[in-house]
Amino acid sequence: MRYALVTETWKRITSDVMDGSQPVWFFLPILFLGTSPWIVVVTASVRRWVREVRTDAERPKLISLSLWLVLPLIFFCLSQSKRPVYLLPVVPAVALLTAWSWTGGSGRWRGARVAAVVWRLFAVLFFAFWGGAGADRISVELAESVAIVAPRLTVANLIAALGGWLLAGHRKLAPMALSLPLVFFPALMAPLTNAIAEGRSGRILATVARDHLTPAMAVAAGFRAGEHPVRHRPRQGGVSSCGLRKMLWRPMVDLLGVYWYCRRRF
Length: 266
Hints:
14 helices; about 0% strand; single chain
């Protein structure tokens, strides 16, 4: 209870004990990148938003959605410890406000076309990566995957930008066109995500198993492992730290991990 209420809640908000100190504006670019292009559609409808808040019919729902978006954002911006995942609670509010912005009014034209411009900017950014910009910040293991993913994202964003601009007046077709990069994002990013997952999972497992499971992994990779007899000397003092937990149960779990790793990698 103390860990949940004090360490994970109070200390995370009021101190840097969880090693997550960031500037106050840390969540603003994350909100833009994580909810684009829909946050742009919502922003373009602010004038209509303020106008319809004055009507009795729309006031409760718009005030609720506004508080849902603004209050958590302010709270997390003022918090000392910041992580990108903290913004997940405001994503449904952005989605609902986006749906509201497409239900009538003239604001949908401007919102859709501004969102199309955002996709065009992302296309330029991915094209720059394709051309080699930022190559010094990308590891050698990921460079090949980035070269495959960047042109895919460039083309997808250009198609979405063109479709969103031309179909801005169609209430059903414009959101579908703007959603294309998001719908196909997992497939477009597959080479890069697979490369990251393969490198991290293999590195972590190798670090854990390097002490006592290296021979098993070497044999699985096609090498030969030999045995050399050594002389065991009796302990002169102290207490052994080797017990069932360390020498039986934990190695059994590690062996399951090695089995999965070898089946996947070799």
